[in-house]
């Protein structure tokens, strides 16, 4: 560290040790939004110095320590150090009443525990179990089709959904039939692009078929999804707002019914919210995965081809373009249609 930086750090430490106000600031600043943090940092030189490391820690890990590996932001095109949203490793139903009050500490020296990401809310494991009905296999080691959870059994919905072992199974976290349950285990980074905004990139080579991440966010009713889409469309036209509301429609083999899941990662989401569209289908495939005993399947991304380090991760947002004046697509594929997919929510 340079001598003047070291001197400043020593001054800050002495100042902080004698100033209960600054000690409180260290606890409070990570709970602030970027706008609030900027406003607070303008009030005094000490608070400006206390705010800086919070912003630095935020840009070093979008996942707030809630994933096995940090996912840093990199921006060489403008001055935004990071994107602000609340992090959830897997999708959740949030009460609209608490939604506006929801905050999450981000940028503190202490990391969040997975189960405290949303204080008072059940952890991923608890959410996955339906009431106290414990479903699952009783294998010690799940191997291929000997395991009742592997490959799906039963109703026609299971043909559209891949099944994995779940919370009620006899096997543990090391089971080979839980590929999508360990969180983000490949190195990723979020890089700013002039045209597309933030983009998710591989920061290591990823083999075809490997699990990359889930698309996690708020699970909405269709009514709520439609209302939010309307709001986001208005914001997009007036202020270049970027939304992340995904509607998954999985047609069941009989053709008689459709499984529909609305996931909004705009305000509460995970790294999946940074994956952009590509008209050529990109390098990720989307798979609905149900852990045995879970109420709803999760939308998961797997590498659809071998991916090189530094490659942008993309998938197709859909085939339909309802709006001829929709958002401009900058995917760069030779098959690019020029506008992003859009359909009725
Ligand atoms: C799920 S977000 C993806 C992350 C987003 N780029 C960001 O900065 O947060 C979807 C939004 O990203 C932008 N986007 C995604 N794919 C794009 C593409 N191929 N060309 C231009 N913009 C794209 C659009 O604004 C879209 O509404």
Automatic annotation (TrEMBL):
<dbReference type="InterPro" id="IPR003616">
    <property type="entry name" value="Post-SET_dom"/>
</dbReference>
<dbReference type="GO" id="GO:0042054">
    <property type="term" value="F:histone methyltransferase activity"/>
</dbReference>
<dbReference type="InterPro" id="IPR007728">
    <property type="entry name" value="Pre-SET_dom"/>
</dbReference>
<dbReference type="Pfam" id="PF00856">
    <property type="entry name" value="SET"/>
</dbReference>
<dbReference type="Pfam" id="PF05033">
    <property type="entry name" value="Pre-SET"/>
</dbReference>
<keyword id="KW-0489">Methyltransferase</keyword>
<keyword id="KW-0808">Transferase</keyword>
<dbReference type="GO" id="GO:0008270">
    <property type="term" value="F:zinc ion binding"/>
</dbReference>
<protein>
    <submittedName>
        <fullName>Histone-lysine N-methyltransferase SUVR3</fullName>
    </submittedName>
</protein>
<dbReference type="GO" id="GO:0005634">
    <property type="term" value="C:nucleus"/>
</dbReference>
<feature type="domain" description="Post-SET">
    <location>
        <begin position="325"/>
        <end position="341"/>
    </location>
</feature>
<keyword id="KW-0479">Metal-binding</keyword>
<dbReference type="InterPro" id="IPR050973">
    <property type="entry name" value="H3K9_Histone-Lys_N-MTase"/>
</dbReference>
<keyword id="KW-0862">Zinc</keyword>
<dbReference type="InterPro" id="IPR001214">
    <property type="entry name" value="SET_dom"/>
</dbReference>
<keyword id="KW-0158">Chromosome</keyword>
<dbReference type="InterPro" id="IPR046341">
    <property type="entry name" value="SET_dom_sf"/>
</dbReference>
<dbReference type="GO" id="GO:0032259">
    <property type="term" value="P:methylation"/>
</dbReference>
<keyword id="KW-0949">S-adenosyl-L-methionine</keyword>
<feature type="domain" description="SET">
    <location>
        <begin position="186"/>
        <end position="318"/>
    </location>
</feature>
<dbReference type="GO" id="GO:0005694">
    <property type="term" value="C:chromosome"/>
</dbReference>
